[in-house]
Amino acid sequence: MSSTRQGPGDVSPGPRPAIATVEELQARQSEVDPLINSVCTPNPAALTEAARLDTERADGRIRGPLHGMPVLVKDNIDTADLPTTAGSLALADQPPPPYDAPLVRRLREAGCIVLGKTNLSEWANFRGSSSSSGWSGYGGLTRNPYALNRSPGGSSSGSGAAVAAGLAELAIGTETNGSIVCPAALNGIVGLKPTVGLIPQQGIIPLSHSQDTAGPMTKTVRQAAALLTVMTGGGTDYEAHCLDDDLTGVRIGVPRGPLWGYSLGLDRVTEEALSLLSAAGATVVDGLSLPTPGSEEDQVAILFHEMKVDLAAYLATRHPGGPRTLADVIAFNKAHADEELRYFGQELFERSEQTDGLDSPVYVAARLSALRAGRDGIDGLLRDHQLDAFVTPSYSPAWSIDLVNGDHVLGSSSTHAALAGYPLISVPSGSVEGLPVGITFHGTGRSDATLIRLAHAFETARIKAHGPFPTPEFRQWV
Known about the structure:
alpha/beta, Amidase signature (AS) enzymes, eleven-stranded mixed sheet, two-stranded antiparallel sheet, globular
């Protein structure tokens, strides 16, 4: 990182000891996390790891720009020294996984300190249709630090809330359809969903192998780029794309239609964002439209079929005393209904269990239809209007937490990219009545570096125009 600022969460290899940073963040967690419940499993060895990395630095062995940096990891990503539960009590009493997920191994090799695991919407928010984002049987309910009675978004709820609350500047989330960009937008942080396959999927409790990916959730775009460089193995320096704030010659499309109009306040903030992009030199091509992303029936059919198969393959890597199949998890939930099924059911699990495998004609047809809808829609829009990317509002402002009826999401813009396996990055754009909102940059496959460049330029322009994003006050929203 090129920043020279020193302080907790700084991603430059400055002289501040890692152990001091970890102690400060742990004190911060003790102070504010009881209000938002974002960290479900602190790492008791974090200070020991920090001391070891400080010794390496003192000996002149610096692993890279993230040496000594604390990072929080979503609790559906394998860590060999900490439980990995997907928020489910079915995995809560099982030993930790035998190995780190490849992405966690890369973080540690780069000198990151795993500060702990973050809570999530149980099973990545795909168990019951009336779920509440941020709730899990293992971790309880995570709250939005900007409005404690409002949702932090899902399913990477804890990662988003923790970064917003200052418990770490770096966190890892996962996304199938919106689970990074949604909590990023609702918590006023940056969320980067990479192209599917750019980061290894091994060691991540799966929902859909065709759509799942881990990704960075951070305070700034530059930090997200630095994390992505490490998570992808270091072959591309994504942070190098945060050097140019001049967007002259860049063409950014604006598809309207159903991607706008579900929140007047969000639309107003996004119109201001378009003006900032134009002032930065971009050519904004407005009045466009995306085709519908295929049928909802096809979309959920993919998830139903893939989850049953993918989850069984993952559970085979865990302790033999735990659940081995989706049917085992369903049975566990029924046996522990007072805890697991208290607020919503598991009808999505049950529908998944009824599927016939990945050779099913239903699955094959749905997968081809959804892939075509996602990729043709995005690539066609970019090609027909000679665009480098397009931009939309991210998600509606945070809705009220309702454990009885579930989420009340007004709108989103992540589905096309989910079906296509294409990247997204959400960046704070402003607030609506004190609730953070964001804009999302979309592109074709492997356009992650381009989206990072655009997002960084916008972030810089927004800060110049309006100052740093306000910090949360941990209050009830009225």
